[in-house]
């Protein structure tokens, strides 16, 4: 088929084309302790400091979430990580290579979407991938196109012109384009924008499969707390250009307080309350309503997995059927608000 020329872009860097995509082709060394290592990164726009002396480290083989409100500096930091903006101070190493000193080597086998992905609107989804393929692996990348179209959920839609795509479909096509070069590191800026509930669930499955089954590292930014909790192994919280904490999701939920809230869905809440009322590991017990309208119990317990294990054991021994025992979804929101409000003081 004929190949269309790529649209004008504000920068071009050996296989890095369009300010929304970065993708190339070399290897990430498995012996590298930190895949991403940012040291003292600072970026100013006039009198405003968008990124303020940031230190950030991401190890290989995890889904890492970069969490913060709109305007906190997430996209600016991602642009610095990918060499799309020049830092006023500090440096970024990807797999041990300085991005500013050797961009082609540092950005080898890195795929990314920064802000909203852009395409030739008059071309089909498949044709847009054909345009990009020579930049990130040639024939090998071209051979991956049918598989990627299906993998991101565009089966049967790849031959439609992109100008008719919804925002969610463009996001899916952006992920396919970022994966063309078979990247070891995938960087995604607000990747679930425009996706409906089913699309978000499919996206979660795709990301977790890449991390758990393919050994890829995924770095994604978002302001959606619930999605980050479901997706990520580790997170960093950014506020006003500064990283105020970096930790695992489990430690974020457990480490900021001596207690946490568990939500219990069972077949006999009354009996469960009787059993747990005398259990010293359970503090407050509150009746509330689950998402399906059924009664559930909110339990205040000591932080850590041991409390959940002991509660489950006691309930089962007492003849109560446990449908679900989970950390309160609002716990992450409370921890996030506690951290960011404290940092703003």
Please mark out the parts with pLDDT under 50 across 5 or more consecutive residues, or reply none.
1-32
Question: Which class do the helix and strand fractions yield?
Answer: alpha/beta
Mean pLDDT across residues: 84
Strand content is 25-35%
**DSSP strand count:** 15
Indicate the radius of gyration in whole angstroms.
23 Å
Structure annotation, total helices: 11
- Helix/strand order, N-terminal first: EEEEHEEHEHHHEHEHEEHEHEEHEH
Question: For the largest beta sheet, what order do the strands appear in spatially?
Answer: 1-7-8-9-4-10-11
Which term fits the overall shape? globular
Biggest sheet: strands, sense, closure?
A: 7 strands, mixed
Helix content: 25-40%
What is the end-to-end distance? Answer: 59 Å
Structure in a nutshell:
This protein is α/β, with parallel strands linked by helices and 345 residues long.
Describe the structure.
This protein has helices at residues 74-81, 103-106, 125-132, 139-151, 167-178, 197-212, 225-231, 249-255, 269-277, 305-317, 329-344, and strands at 21-22, 36-45, 48-58, 63-67, 89-94, 97-98, 110-113, 185-189, 217-222, 234-239, 242-248, 259-266, 282-289, 295-302, 322-327. The strands form 3 sheets. Strands 1-7-8-9-4-10-11 form a 7-stranded mixed β-sheet, sandwiched between helices. It starts with 20 loop residues before the first strand and ends with a helix. It is α/β, with parallel strands linked by helices. The chain has 11 helices and 15 strands. 33% of the residues lie in helices and 27% in strands. Strand 13 (282-289) and strand 14 form a beta hairpin. The longest helix has 16 residues, at 197-212.
